[in-house]
Write a structure and sequence with these properties.
Elements lengths: L8 H9 L14 E4 L3 H9 L4 H29 L17 H5 L20 E4 L2 H18 L2 E2 H8 L10 E3 L6 E5 L2 E5 L4 E2 L2
Antiparallel strand pairs: 1-2, 2-6, 3-4, 4-7, 5-6
């Protein structure tokens, strides 16, 4: 049965509010190399976060600074002859059984499948820097228009054949993306591809 479009003002406004149909075409004219990630790259992408600067600041602010403060405090206490903890005359401490009862609510679901943090897709290497930047700007346009860009969109922009799963993973923000110089050309360095809704 044929579906008819609504004629009310509300239906007309909804039709105007919808973005145009998504159309992604190849924009690269030069050769494109699609490289599978080797085992070392896959392992490092799991354990090393994308933004190493955040790791540096975390280690410094949350580990080094408190440790230095403790060392200085212990040195001052030692010089003054004051112990850090005194239990003389202190009332008996209360024992909290809450954590004991809360443990019963925790269940170890070892049989549950874990979701992956990111999606492994092939690295894309282009010959020219301007083409690499054009791909990134086109992906940014897709995100601003449709709210996302999938791995399949990336592959279509560069003319690489992907698979069906590539449509289910992608990006909603690629501000940290860049084209970096490698031996073979310019590698598209993108954030991890996450599941799209």
């Amino acid at each position: 049965m044929e579906e008819y479009k609504g004629n009310s003002n509300k239906a007309k406004e909804q039709q105007k509010a919808l973005p145009p149909e998504k159309k992604v075409e190849k924009i690269v004219s030069g050769p494109v190399k699609s490289k599978k990630k080797n085992s070392i790259q896959k392992i490092t992408s799991i354990f090393v976060p994308e933004d190493v600067e955040d790791v540096k600041s975390y280690i410094f602010e949350d580990i080094v600074v408190p440790a230095v403060k403790d060392i200085i405090l212990d040195a001052v206490r030692a010089l003054l002859g004051v112990s850090g903890k005194s239990n003389k005359g202190a009332p008996a401490s209360k024992v909290s059984y809450r954590s004991y009862y809360d443990r019963g609510n925790e269940r170890n679901d070892y049989g549950r499948t874990r979701t992956r943090v990111g999606y492994d897709y092939d690295d894309i290497v282009l010959d020219k820097r301007d083409e690499a930047e054009d791909v990134l700007s086109r992906m940014d346009e897709l995100i601003s228009t449709y709210g996302m860009a999938s791995v399949a969109d990336l592959y279509e922009l560069v003319g690489v054949t992907g698979n069906y799963t590539d449509n289910k993973y992608g990006w909603t923000d690629i501000r940290s993306a860049s084209a970096i110089r490698v031996r073979d050309g310019y590698l598209l360095k993108l954030p991890k591809a996450l599941p799209l809704n």
